[in-house]
Amino acid sequence: MSTARTDSEQVELANTALYEAVERGDTAAMGRLWLDDPDAEVSCVHPGWPVLRGRSEVLRSYALIMASTDYIQFFLTDVEVAVAGDTALVTCTENILSGGPAEEEGELGPLVGQLVVATNAFRRVGEEWKVWSHHGSPVLAGRDEEDDDEDGATGGNGGADGIPGA
């Protein structure tokens, strides 16, 4: 039995590694995961941020996020991988649970949940897949399938708090 992974599996592992590096606050791993090619400038859009261009700007943004977040965990859903040659796209929903600073020393602040849809572009470099671009957009309203009319239009904005199924 072969243990070689398909391109799609390798890309999905690289995508997971990106989120795990953020969860651990691992700036060294983050640097290894992003493309380092002057002919292919990287870019990143965090929810609510302007477009960041250039490897150093993107890595600095992640360092700032990781330094100012006491706790963050990503539960990825709706993960779809598409590979075309040496380029791949991953779309997914980031179900984020995060906690900020607490009032008391040594305590974790209140936990906050957030949904973000993300597109991550990867380029193959040798045998590895490197992040080329990340774009995250907040989910502001959900789609309630039960409110769909016969034409397929949706009549609701999701659950009570705007999150599908809530």
From TrEMBL:
Sequence ranges assigned to domain SnoaL-like in this UniProt record: 11-139
Database matches in InterPro entries: NTF2-like_dom_sf, SnoaL-like
SUPFAM superfamilies named among the record's database cross-references: NTF2-like
UniProt biased composition (Gly residues): 153-166
Residue segments, region Disordered: 136-166
Gene3D superfamilies linked: 3.10.450.50
PANTHER family reported for this sequence: NUCLEAR TRANSPORT FACTOR 2 (NTF2) FAMILY PROTEIN (PTHR34957)
Protein name (database record): DUF4440 domain-containing protein
